Amino acid sequence: MKSLLLRNLVSLYGIQLATLILPLLTLPYLTRVLGPAAWGQLAAVQALAITLSLVVEFGFGYSATRAVAQQRGNTSALARIAAGVLGAKLFLLLSLLLVATIIYALAPAFRQSPALYCWGIVFAAVQGFAPLWYFQGQERLQQAAALDIAGRVVATAGIFLLVRVPEQAWRVLALYAVMIGLAQVINTFRMYRELPFVLPAWTTTVESLRAGFSMFLFRGATSLYLSANSALLRLYLPGAQVGYYANAERLAAAGKSMVQPITQALFPRVSHLVQHDGEAARSLLRRSLLLMLAVSCAAALGLFMAAPWFVPLFFGAAYQPSVPLLQALIVTLPIVAASNVLGLQWMLPNGQDRAFNAIVVAAGLLNIVLVMLLVPRYGSQGMAWSVITTESVITLSMALYILRQPDHPFRKQQLPQAL
């Protein structure tokens, strides 16, 4: 059982690393070949596509995975779950196309490259239709993950071969859409080799939508201040300015990812201790917070000092304006580390999901308001300030909520009275 868990954990990390590292490998090449304007346009459409993909994914990576795990071995129940998810995704795909059409009609900035925009929407749909939830629920993720990673590797190689001039920027998203889509098709056929195909019904579709709504709300809200910022910035600024910001945002995101393994490793342990040994859970939480802050502060300091020479070296001399943006965004590294500990390692294990989601949703809306207020006046620097403010509000809100609880992890321990 432990070896099975380890293999699935390795598979999940493989997908996460492929999603993060492979695009980073292409950045030095794309920023130079495309130039600031075309690169900024590509970054904006890609950010929009990643955000819109959540409409189709809809949290099924958690809700459907849990349902499959609970019904493992019951073929008829699994077929019903698959039918419900398929019906929900087809319904959500129509919603995605409607939203994408409205954005295209109302936002002239995205109409500058019709081919790029269309492939971005295809990429969003492909991302959302991934059937990994079934294999993760069955704890047989290795082959499905290998196909997904292989598709991304081939797409990455294709970028170096087929993208040579700014007018070919659309090929980046086309390669990812086609190759990842091929992997999704193969995995879907693999799923239906094990399950009888059942046509989606409205009842099972609605059940699936209800089950995934809570996680969709959380992921959708976080995307408003994580993945959507480059797309929002393009509504106000030229493509080149978006390119400068996208560079800084992606390097800062890579820095933030350094603390994710610690969070994921400690989450199940804290969840267990909360139920069986409260004092041990509080002690682990305090030590985890100190560790996360130490790691993130060291990473932030290193990135801040290295930014003036690393950014031109990595992206090219034309991207010098990315330096102050990166130095601003890396301030969020310890802030995000603290919110990960407080939210994911304390609030969720303690069943404080409603408060957690309320804070995240409010923060996503706050980010949009700040973007509208700051970006028209301060440009991409205003976007960086909006992110810093939003992340700070999240961390502060979580800290205040936790400190109001009678059994919070930072309370003074009662010393035993002398007899």
UniProtKB/TrEMBL annotation:
Transmembrane stretches, by residue range?
A: 12-31, 37-60, 81-107, 113-133, 169-189, 289-311, 323-343, 355-376, 382-403
**Principal place of residence:** membrane
* Localization annotation: Membrane
A Pfam family hit: Polysacc_synt
The alphabetical list of record keywords is: Membrane, Transmembrane, Transmembrane helix
Write down the membrane topology.
Multi-pass membrane protein
A GO CC term assigned to this protein in UniProt: membrane
Q: Which PANTHER family does the entry link to?
A: LOCUS PUTATIVE PROTEIN 1-RELATED
Question: Under which name does UniProt file this protein?
Answer: Flippase
Classification from the root reads: Bacteria, Thermotogati, Deinococcota, Deinococci, Deinococcales
